[in-house]
Amino acid sequence: MKTALPTSSPVATVRPVKIGFLGGSFDPVHFGHLIAAQDAYEQYQLDRLFLVPAAQAPLKPNDVQSSAEDRLAMLRAAVEWDRRFELSDFELRKGGTSYTIDSVRHFRAQFPDDQLFWIIGGDQLPRMHLWREIEELARLTEFIFLERPGHPVKAMPSVPGLRLHRCDGHLVEISSTELRERVRRGLSLDYFIPHKAIVQIEEKRLYR
Question: Alpha helices of the chain — where are they, by DSSP H?
């Protein structure tokens, strides 16, 4: 009588979790930021997406006007209802100039086996060669760049090993600088900023 050989169970394969990170001053957060996050999340089918407010952006030395606490509160108020998005206060807690390489090393240590994507605007590509330790950064994370209708990216950065993924972004012409000026002029922020973030601005009397 022949004995049946045991059949081997198929080995379960677990795909890496796809995690996106969108940095910025968020001073204040506006719908342009959030639509960009949603575009990247949907088009690349991300599993998680972190919004990462910077303490101080290295290439925009005068871009932050309100405190870390206020910017984080506005951001939390804007997205706390949305389970797709999470907040990281790593750069705010670290303080000083927020270099992307420091943040990516931090997140890579947290998520060693996952697929990481740093989300940027297409307008940042021409300056990527100026980023600190850009070749090490290219090794640790992939990049999603948002290209908006009517604003094609004309030249790609020449960085060894850089992994770039194009994302079709919506045309949303909003700037935080413009919004701060609207506050100073007493103009409405409606339709530019989520209502709960507007409440934070009004209660704290920011940008006045």
Answer: 31-43, 68-79, 90-94, 100-110, 134-140, 176-184, 195-204
